[in-house]
Amino acid sequence: MDRKGQASAEFILLFGGIIVVVLLAIYMYNNYVSDLSGQISSKELTEFNGELNELYKYFK
Hints:
By secondary structure, the protein is mainly α. The chain is built from 1 helix and no strands. It has a domain at 22-60. The mean pLDDT is 82.
């Protein structure tokens, strides 16, 4: 009877550890994606400003 209880407790600890690792990975991935989106929008904004400056030359 003690062995069944020990096995159940070990499985609970194992699944708990896996859940903690998965949550940490999701948190780190979320930070990575949010930083990446900021860089992409900044690059797009720079390109858009460059195109507007090129068009400005035609309307001088």
